[in-house]
Amino acid sequence: LRWTICLVYLDDIIIYAAGVDEHLQRVRQVLTALQVAGLKIKLVKCQFGAQEVKALGHVISGEGIRPDPEKMWAVENFPSPTTLV
């Protein structure tokens, strides 16, 4: 299923689809595969039907991938060094 209906990184799974019906079908496929493998998910950590998700410091949506503004703010506002070694 990887790369055909979902992206997997460590314990994160992102299921992507063009529409709601396709998304529901793919969610069922992934949940079935997890069940067959004896794996469980924590429902409180899941998002279903989201238009965009944050992962690995990026915001992923149907429009593409962009840096997470919260992460960019941290980099842009990192204090300048005050000493030289």
TrEMBL record:
One Pfam family hit: RVT_1
Organism: Daphnia magna
Keywords (A to Z) from UniProt: Hydrolase, Protease
Reverse transcriptase domain location: 5-60
GO molecular function, one term: peptidase activity
Database matches in InterPro entries: DNA/RNA_pol_sf, Rev_trsase/Diguanyl_cyclase, RT_dom, Viral_Replic_Matur_Polypro
Single GO biological process annotation from the record: DNA biosynthetic process
Lineage: Eukaryota, Metazoa, Ecdysozoa, Arthropoda, Crustacea
Superkingdom of origin: Eukaryota
Annotated protein name in UniProt: Putative Protease
